Structures are given as structure tokens and as C-alpha cells.
Amino acid sequence: MNVLVNGTPLLAPLTGIGQYIRHLFGEMSTFDDVNLSIYYGLRCEKGLPRAVDADAAGAVQLPTPDSAHGLRMAYHLVKKFVPRPRELRRYAEKLSFAYHAGKEGGAIYHEPNYLPLPYKGPTVLTVFDLSCFDHPETHPRERVEITLRELPPAVARADHIIVASQATASAVQQRFDVGPERLTITHLAADARFRPRPAQELAGPLEALSLHAGGYLLCVGTLEPRKNLGTLFQAYAQLPAALRKRYPLVVAGMSGWHTDALEKQAATLLARGELRLLGYLPDATIPLLYAGAAAFIYPSIYEGFGLPPLEAMASGVPVITSNRTSLPEVVGDGGLLVDPLDVDAFRNHLHELLEDPHAAAGWRARGLARAADFSWARCARETVEVYRRVAAARGMKC
User: Distances in Å between the alpha carbon of 84 and those of 12, 42, 91, 145, 397?
Assistant: First the structure.
């Protein structure tokens, strides 16, 4: 069975969708009956090979930054016709993809990033959330315009739609009137790199970041309005000064948009050294950063799945997160769930976890048990089953 995947999100710093592509199709490369072709802008490659590094179980080798050169050339060639950057990117991708798709005849096309490129054959579409529809104020205007214009016809045209949570499944069904026969939920997972680690293993890498194991609070995610970091900063600022000094708040993730107000709000904490914005970190550093945290906080107001809290639980770290959208479905009884706008609740739970070792140990154990319920192997099996159903409906050989 031939499967063509749009892998262009792997060319940029990995966010949630990039991690989904990396882990799902890295796992799927072990299926003998699935022939993967990954589209990277102006080229296609067969399969998504696993990394050689034994400590990076489930990881895959990613394209080098030079892989994006072809796309940049394409953007330059059509710039005079499409002046808006995101529109420009879509136009360039459509031209390039049409060429490669023509060479991959008889394939099922899987678009893991919402908006499929033009393809005449069977199409599987992954939709992580409908935040552009439900919370357009949390996205750049151009992204909202493109999504609102292109996603409805894409959903109508797709042979099958994959979502990562029941929350998103319900949203897709309600907004687009999609029948259950065209919709499948495949939960994501934390890979094996996210696990508890002894302090001696963490000492060197964390020292390079001026941190030490068990001596900081952590939040991971792109700095953008949807992540609701302002609530976290308020809650943290209300902790006793002695706790803030002992446990700095660390935020890892690349800068998104509308960050000016957030940076002003954080100015005092930054000046005192109580808040540290690490920016985008190398992929190998992230599991170690998780494992060394005293607690993980994720106050997002809207998630299609919520991979960071699951990775934190798998790392043996107590989790405090929002009770909105998919997060209760993912975290279950493995973490503390609060209203994302309730500053007092975040502050009180943080204070308890930092001052009560017994409570913290209990939430670590619950989180580890909950994280064990998810696996990329199962996600891959369920996704391949979707391909088989699509192939059967289209009269293709599996």
C-alpha cells in the first residue's frame, strides 16, 4: 500500500504537528505492507528512517535545514504574483506537490497539517483542532483567513478524517456535519525518550542551562495567546518570594505572535531572574528538561490533544493543566485540572506541590500510570487501519 505524506512541517522547528509526523511515520516505517513517501517541498523521499542513537528510541532522522532551500527558491519565483507570505507558501507548495503527486500514482495521500494540497486520489486528513474557527483571536489573521476558506471544502472532499481526541471529533462533527463512518480518533503518545531520569544523568545538560534537577517549574509550548501564559505568570508571581527564588519558572518554546504584551507582563519576573524564557531548544534537550522539573504547568485554553502534559507525566513530573477541550481526556486522573483563567487555583496547586513532597510523589505516580495508556505503536496501527478502509472503499489493493 503506497502512502504519500506531506512532511514539510519537519523543515521548521518542531511544534506539535511536526512531532506527530515524526513519531507516527517513524513508527509506521516498521510496517512491511506500507510504502511511505515523504514530501519535503521540492523533493520526495522514501520512508522516514529511525535514528541510530539508541537513547532516542522512536526518534527519526530529520531533514537538514538545507532541505528547505528548494521551497525558499519556489517562494522567490512566485513572490511577484502572491505578495502575502502565507498565501505565497500555499501557492508554492501546490505547484511543487502537483509534480511529485503525479509521480506517486496509486498512493493514498495523508495530509497531517489540516489543509491538503491538490490531489486527485484518495485523501486522509488529520485535523487537530478547530481553534481558527472557535478562537480566531488567538491566531494571526492571515492563518485564520486561509483556514476558514480552505478547511471546509477539504473536509467535505476527504475520504477520511483523523482527529486526536473526542473533543475535536465532536467539534468536527458539529461544525462540518461529518458522519462517524468518515471520522477516526487516534490518540498520540509520549515516546520512550520521555521517562524519569536519575539526577546524575541530568546534571550536565541542566547545568548548561543554569538549572538543576528538581529546582525549577516548567512550561513547554509556543509563546502565543492560546497557551495562556499570562495566567501562569500571574499565579507564579503570587507564590512566596522564597519559593520563587528556589524554583524559577522556565518556559521553553519558540516565540509565536502577539508576544509584546506577554513580555511586558513578565518583565519584573525576568528582571529578578525568577522567570527564564529559553526559546526553542534542541530536540535532544527537551526530554531532559522535562525530567528535571519539580512540576509542569500547562494553562492552555484550547488544545486538540495536548502532547506536552502527556510528555511531562511520562517523565515522572507532577502536572497542573487546564480543564478545557481535550486536556481532561488526555490527562485523566494523572494530573491536576483547573479552570485556565483561575489564577488562584494555579497558585494554590503550585504551592502544594512545592511544599508537600508526599502530594508531589502521589501525582508523579498517577501521571506515570496515565501516560502508560498511550503509545505511538497503537496510533500507527489505527492510522494504517484507516488507510486500509480507504483503500478498500476505493477498490485499491492493500
Answer: 19, 21, 10, 12, 42
**CA–CA dist 145, 143 (Å, integer):** 6
- Report whether pLDDT(70) > 60: no
Grid coordinates in use for 1? 500500500
* Angle subtended at Cα 141 by Cα 139 and Cα 145, rounded to the nearest 5 degrees: 105
Collapsing DSSP states into helix, strand and coil, what is residue 216? coil
- Unique residue bearing C-alpha cell 512566596: 240
pLDDT by residue (tens digit) across 153-200? Answer: 999 999 999 999 999 999 999 999 999 999 999 999 998 999 999 999
Q: Concatenated DSSP letters for 311-363?
A: HHHHTT--EEEE-STTHHHHHGGGSEEE-TT-HHHHHHHHHHHHH-HHHHHHH
The pLDDT, as a whole number, for residue 313 is 98
Question: CB of 186 within 8 A of CB of 345?
Answer: no
The angle subtended at Cα 163 by Cα 38 and Cα 314, nearest 5°, is 85
Contact 301, 332 (CB under 8 A): no
Estimate the share of the chain in helix, then strand, then coil, as percent rounded to the nearest 5. Answer: 50, 15, 35
For the 199-371 domain, the top CATH level (class) is alpha beta
Q: Which amino acid is present at 326?
A: S
Strands of the 249-252 sheet, one edge to the other: 275-279, 249-252, 217-220, 295-298, 319-322, 336-338
Where does 2-189+375-394 sit in CATH, by number? 3.40.50
Among 381, 378, 239, residue whose Cα is nearest residue 297: 239
Per-residue pLDDT tens over the stretch 214-260:
999 999 987 777 788 999 999 999 999 999 999 999 999 877 555 66
Phi, psi of 281 (to 5 degrees): -110, 155
Burial class (CB in 10 A: 0-12, 13-18, 19+), 378: middle
Q: For the residues of 70-110, what is the DSSP string, one character each?
A: HHHHHHHHHTTT--SHHHHHHHHHHHHHHHHHHHSTTPEEE
199-371 and 2-189+375-394 share a CATH fold = yes
Domain positions in the chain are 2-189+375-394, 199-371
pLDDT higher than 80, residue 51: no
25-41 burial, b for 16+ CB within 10 Å, e for fewer?
bbbbbebeebebbbbbb
